[in-house]
Design a protein that fits this description.
Elements (H helix, E strand, L loop, with lengths): L1 H33 L1 E10 L2 E2 L3 E8 H5 L11 E9 L5 E7 L8 E7 L2 E3 L4 E3 L4 H16 L6 E8 L2 E9 L2 E2 H6 L6
Antiparallel strand pairs: 1-3, 1-9, 2-3, 3-8, 4-5, 4-6, 6-7, 9-10, 10-11
Length: about 180
């Protein structure tokens, strides 16, 4: 009599174990398909994560600018950052709230130890290309001379969920930008 219940319990647990990651994948793909595209100015940093490999960590100006939001309690919690787009077409956050805004696009993020932790702060790429991406970013900025950023993260946003679509340097996806560089002997 116990065996049918154990088998049923096992099947319920197995379906639950499969449903959770499938749900996350479906949600991510829906954001990429239906989400609105925003360009967040960024500057790449090339760290290493022992378990996940090399990635380009993005230092987003939008996450730093939001600190000027008045009367925000910077304790550890969930925050909703409303998105605005400047005249140059780049996205920024205009304020933080503790509940989703009633209108407009926003990103659900965490405030952790006084920092705004965005769900799209890491861009994973080939382990050999990540250091080159950072190096070329800084070289590219030096050639421009003015310090105006030409690097941005293309992020899709849908109902508070944000997914990093690509990283751009010099107006091109980072992989294309690196592929077009002269090959060293």
């Amino acid at each position: 009599m116990k065996k049918p219940w154990l088998m049923a319990l096992f099947l319920v647990l197995a379906v639950g174990q499969i449903a959770a990651p499938v749900s996350m994948i479906v949600q991510r793909e829906q954001v990429l398909k239906d989400g609105r595209l925003y360009k967040f100015p960024s500057q790449p940093i090339d760290p290493v994560d022992v378990f996940r490999g090399r990635y380009v960590a993005l230092s987003l100006r939008a996450a730093q600018e939001v600190y000027s939001t008045p009367a925000w309690n910077w304790e550890d919690r969930t925050a909703y950052a409303r998105i605005k787009v400047d005249e140059a077409g780049f996205a920024h956050f205009d304020n933080l709230t503790s509940a989703p805004p009633p209108s407009g696009d926003y990103v659900k993020a965490r405030v952790h130890y006084g920092s705004l932790v965005l769900p799209f702060s890491r861009y994973y790429m080939n382990e050999k290309l990540a250091p080159k991406a950072e190096s070329e970013y800084w070289k590219h900025m030096g050639r421009r001379g003015s310090g105006q950023i030409e690097s941005y993260a293309a992020v899709r946003v849908l109902r508070g969920n944000a997914v990093l679509e690509d990283l751009y340097i010099g107006g091109k996806p980072v992989a294309e930008f690196l592929d077009e560089l002269p090959k060293s002997p």
